[in-house]
Amino acid sequence: MDLHKLDTTDIGILNLLQQDAHLGYKEIAHKLKRNKSVIGERIQRLKANGYIKGSVALVDVHKVMSIFLVFTFIELKDHSQDRIQAFKEKMISLPQIMECYHITGRYDFKLKIAVSDMAAYNTLLREQVACLDFVGKIETFTVIDETKMKTGYELK
């Protein structure tokens, strides 16, 4: 099953589950006007083929703890494949790095970092990122307010 072979039922299932992963087969079947057993089979196939990677609870972190959120842009001095891979692996290993994107343009990477405060960010940057000999310029933008946060994609 590839993206071009997904039908409207598969797309409908994926869109509904992105909105609420706790929907049962019966509810999905009702919303899509399909048979419950068909929905169950489709979901199992979507999982088996890697279209559904897992399900998570979206926690309002601000109700649980204080968080300092920043976006950091990194320019590498060395663009060899080995250095790019080493940087990616390092970012994957750091739990404070929520997202890491290899991008085009002025910078090479965009990081979304969540820490407790500016001091924790400074320590992370100094001891884990800036110390890498192939890291060049670093530019940081502090999040003032999270206006919109969306986790699902509109599939068509």
What does this structure look like?
The chain has helices spanning 8-19, 25-32, 36-48, 61-64, 81-93, 118-129, and strands at residues 68-76, 97-102, 109-115, 135-142. With 156 residues, it is α+β, with helices and mostly antiparallel strands. It folds into two domains: 6-48, Arc Repressor Mutant, subunit A (Orthogonal Bundle), CATH 1.10.10.10; 61-142, 2-Layer Sandwich (Alpha-Beta Plaits). Strands 2-3-1-4 form a four-stranded antiparallel beta sheet. α2 crosses α3.
Give the key terms.
four-stranded antiparallel beta sheet, Arc Repressor Mutant, subunit A, 156 residues, alpha+beta, Alpha-Beta Plaits, 6 helices
The CATH architecture of the largest domain is 2-Layer Sandwich
Radius of gyration from the CA trace? Answer: 20 Å
* Order of adjacent strands in the largest pleated sheet: 2-3-1-4
How would you spell out the order of helices and strands?
Answer: HHHHEHEEHE
Shape: elongated
Low-confidence stretches: none
Short précis:
By secondary structure, the chain is an alpha+beta fold.
What topology emerges from the helices and strands here?
Elements: H1 8-19, H2 25-32, H3 36-48, H4 61-64, E1 68-76, H5 81-93, E2 97-102, E3 109-115, H6 118-129, E4 135-142
Antiparallel strand pairs: 1-3, 1-4, 2-3
